[in-house]
UniProtKB/TrEMBL annotation:
Family note: Belongs to the thioester dehydratase family. FabZ subfamily.
UniProt keyword terms in alphabetical order: Cytoplasm, Lipid A biosynthesis, Lipid biosynthesis, Lipid metabolism, Lyase
GO molecular function: (3R)-hydroxyacyl-[acyl-carrier-protein] dehydratase activity
The species this protein was found in: Photobacterium damselae subsp. damselae CIP 102761
Record-given protein name: 3-hydroxyacyl-[acyl-carrier-protein] dehydratase FabZ
GO BP, sorted A to Z: fatty acid biosynthetic process; lipid A biosynthetic process
Length: 127
């Protein structure tokens, strides 16, 4: 879903781009005569950017380790995203505690915040 990473500050932040195209399948029915990029897909793009930052920060998981998306909290949608918009996804690493990493995420279009959320990723070893 993410088109490219445009900025990365080691262990701190990552900025990625998602170009929203009318050719994407969700616009078939969301919504007829008024295409709007679904909020859940904005969160998915933000989660992907978070995953990239987490992977770059903590490295590849070990063979017996799983790194997974754990939660989204306080998601807020401020403006609709339309075909032709470019989503700029900015995620920031906050801290890690007991294998759970916490991040802040913001999605912007033309400099305006369209969505914000708190995201968590977890790392667990399995035997």
């Amino acid at each position: 879903m993410i088109d490219r990473v445009v900025n990365y500050e080691e262990g701190k932040t990552l900025t990625a781009i998602k170009n929203v195209s009318i050719n994407e399948p969700q616009f078939t029915g969301h919504f007829p005569n008024m295409p709007v990029f679904p909020g859940v897909l904005i969160l998915e793009a933000m989660a992907q950017a978070t995953g990239l930052l987490a992977f770059k920060t903590f490295g590849a998981p070990k063979e017996n380790e799983l790194y997974y998306f754990a939660s989204i909290d306080n998601a807020k949608f401020r403006k609709p995203v339309m075909p032709g918009d470019q989503l700029v996804l900015e995620v920031e690493f906050l801290k890690e505690r007991r294998g759970i990493a916490m991040f802040n995420g913001v999605a912007k279009v033309d400099g305006d915040v369209v969505c914000s959320a708190e995201l968590k990723c977890a790392r667990r070893e399995f035997s």
